[in-house]
Amino acid sequence: MNATFRHDLLQLNELLQQTASYAGSFLSRINELKVNLPVPSFPATVLPEKGMGAEAALEHFDNRFGDYLTGNAGPRYFGFVTGGVTPAALTGDWLAATFDMNPADKSAVSFHIETETIDLLKQLFGLPDEMLGSFVSGATMSNFTGLATARQWLGRQQGVDVDIAGASALKDVKVLAATPHSSIAKALSMLGLGRNALVKLPTLPGREAVDVSALQAWINAHPGEPFIYVASAGTVNTVDFDDLAAIAALKKEHNFWLHVDAAFGGFAAASPRYKHLLRGWEAADSVTIDAHKWLNVPYDAAMIFTRHPLLQLAVFQNAGAAYLGDPAENFNYINYAPENSRRLRSLPAWFSLKAYGAEGYRDMVEQNIRLAQLLGERIQKSERFQLLAPVRLCVVCFTLNHEPRMLAEHVQLFLQKLNKRGLVYVTPTQYQGVSAIRAALVNWRTTEQDIDKVMEELETVAADIAHLSAIIENN
Fold this sequence. Notes:
The chain is of the alpha/beta class. Among the domains are: about 5-70; about 85-350, 3-Layer(aba) Sandwich (Aspartate Aminotransferase, domain 2). The protein has 14 helices and 11 strands. The chain has a 7-stranded mixed sheet with strand order 1-7-6-5-4-2-3, sandwiched between helices. Strands 8-9-11-10 form a 4-stranded antiparallel sheet. The relative contact order is 0.14. Belongs to the group II decarboxylase family. GO terms for molecular function: carboxy-lyase activity; pyridoxal phosphate binding; transaminase activity.
């Protein structure tokens, strides 16, 4: 054994204690850490001929990068839709790395951990028992997997096995949606269906939800034509939901695949107050739900649920690999999702679900929604901002109360200044043609005190932008 490996092995317990201490120090400060910092251009590094050992590597890491670590998993990071990491999920993630087990190995307990975790998640979401679930790396890959299975279904409607003949054998593919996430078009590109296959339907007035009558009209204009419909169960800008019950009713009469993108909106199912938004999703053919969002487990983790395992198997099976066994006879997760090599992503989720239960997730979801609504109310009352849409769940969509001709420029300046200061992080967006700002609250740590701090910071930066604008105009 190499001498440095041997030294680290003998010092392993001490190294783990040092690592735990370093992690604990970071987490003890996460509530007050800046959520954004300017990062310098680091000088080029050289691979050492002789390694320095783990203890020295930890010290070197701290010296090189430690001052630039930010609280992206903290209570005021409202960018994207990023959850934090619960203490139990962190425990599970550390152990997943420690055990380093492949859940594809059916002879190992890791396979049963994933199976049990999927069952727990179906209970949390109220999804049908007959749905097959598996872990993937994120919502993008979940949407990809669901749409790959839908592509196989579409081929069968046209008398084609796409897994054998390829996507080029399909004719006139149509994928309908009203306000799809960008990962839908990305998945269509990766699947060889092309971004042009996406047909965007009209939305309800002032909403991001589909106008179901427009969907009905499209179906009437294309009688008997099979297609894929991607339903929104929580849009990015306003967490709007398609009327899933109405779409499910159409599905009973017409031949289409229903994929529900519920990356974070699916967690409404954890709350009796909000689960009605998902009424009808039990009729879906496939469902995307992200775990490193509102489940608050570490990156990267998401789930795909489908009710067509044979179609899924046709796409993702490892046919002809004798050492993996017969895919048709021996169930294995690697035959139902893109990755063969998979870390034990289910373990952080298992720990968090067991540690906090349905009540814990219900309370977290409802608290985040309450805080988002509080932020929305305070923005609406402010003279410096304009709330652009009702706060339906956990995202606040707003803009500056400035004249339209300078709005885009002022929003850009506002975000640059706000995010540079580092107390809160929000992202730019466009909502109904308006330059806007988006804050997503899905972190278990966020409190009302954080909303107070954020609102004070928003007001301060908005006042600075208004003052700067006045100076420029007067000159």
